[in-house]
Amino acid sequence: MPIMEPYRIKVVEPIPITTRPYREKAMARAGYNPFNLTAEDVTIDFLSDSGTNALSAEQQAAGMRADETYAGARSFFRFKDVVSELTGYEHMFPVHQGRAAERILFTTLLKPGQVSVSNTHFDTTRANVEMAGCVARDLPCQEAADLDSDAPFKGDIDLEALRGALAGPDDVGVVLMTITNNGGGGQPVSMANLEAVAKLAAEFGVPFFLDAARFAENAWLVNQREPGYRDVSPREIARKAFALADGCVASLKKDGIVHIGGMLAMRDPELAKRCELVLIATEGFRTYGGLSGRDLDMLAQGLLEVTEPTYLRARAEATAYLADQARLGGVDSVRPAGVHALYLNAGRLLPHIPPERFPGHALACELYLAGGIRCAELGSLYLGELDDDGNLLKPAPYELVRMAIPRRVYTQSHLEYVAEVLTGIAKAPEKVPGYRLTEVPKLLRHFNCRLEQASD
Ligand SMILES: *Cc1c(COP(=O)(O)O)cnc(C)c1O
């Protein structure tokens, strides 16, 4: 059965169709770092699903109705009503994106020296915990370590380890559950796991927050995979998940289906008061938090559309389809397929490239050279330990490439094209060269480094 996108196209944007010689030049100019490519160089952009979404006609209309009043804009109250209905949290602040919510929450809630415990902290989340003088500890479940297992909820936290952390000598200041678990292969968290976390957090008197960037995609996978939820709608499941926690931070550039936005929400009125002061000092007044009325109104509409079962089904099926086609073509990815991204197992496809020649990065570069497809490495280049000259001291546990899929942007034929390019690479993987670093910045290495092809 073809996947039928549950929408038709009303506005189009041409995508660059380029040749291999063009791409070879572009990649050399970019220092073999896909982050340095420009939009005109890229045919299919799988670098991120964040803020890359396509708006609906209703969202555009909502944008036209928006109210740009400085304080108390109608747009804010429309956004607030949708968030209240969805989350049940009494206190809610818009922010310009997820990391602003993280910064405000952690600097307000945590005391220096405390520990934040999570299934997996996203990288900006970890950075904001650390900038608050605290420690971020990841406790992924055992199943997460096996890339090939079809366990349904590999995003869960290890409950035994969580109890150990809460009962141990450390001062745990927050338990943060990332749904879906982006740093952990985009795998979902079960409702059973969230319920157990809520219980443990309450037992030890520690606040429990969600990092809810992909709350709707998590709800869809619960509906599909967790016993007892088949007849519960994704929206109802999402509401139940929010109800278990004391509050949330969220990047709405993902499941808000917009280009910019985020939120911080909670039950505790006293904590909300303190967060509001930081918000006003650093983001904006409490009724806009760094967003325009237009953003708030488009978000209010996006947050309604994102839990539509027909939309979620088509999106999940598209990702699963790409995973299947890639596997048939000879490229494995982390199983089972999630929703927002496919994590290709480059280490397995390119065994002739040792970790110090960055097999994940090599596959990401090859996808661009062969097909104009841009994606990001999640392997030793990003997560390994390097010395100042770019020599690898400790490889990452896996050599992966993340293909993040923007919402409502690409159709099945685009995915077929990507599968074909992958299949082509898998026909002669030994031809793919490794890479060597030529410029190694100390900070934010993977965004700013430059490389060259290595013939050794
Ligand atoms: C994207 C993301 C963030 C950060 O949000 P931004 O809007 O990019 O600042 C935090 N957590 C998760 C799980 C994310 O996916």
UniProtKB/TrEMBL annotation:
Keywords: Lyase, Pyridoxal phosphate. The modification N6-(pyridoxal phosphate)lysine is found at residue 254. One of its GO terms (biological process) is aromatic amino acid metabolic process. Its cofactor is pyridoxal 5'-phosphate. GO terms for molecular function: carbon-carbon lyase activity. It comes from the Bacteria. It holds the Pfam family Beta_elim_lyase. Residues 45-420 form the Aromatic amino acid beta-eliminating lyase/threonine aldolase domain. SUPFAM superfamilies: PLP-dependent transferases. Belongs to the beta-eliminating lyase family. PANTHER family: BETA-ELIMINATING LYASE-LIKE PROTEIN-RELATED (PTHR32325), TRYPTOPHANASE (PTHR32325:SF4). This is Tryptophanase. It comes from Umezawaea tangerina.
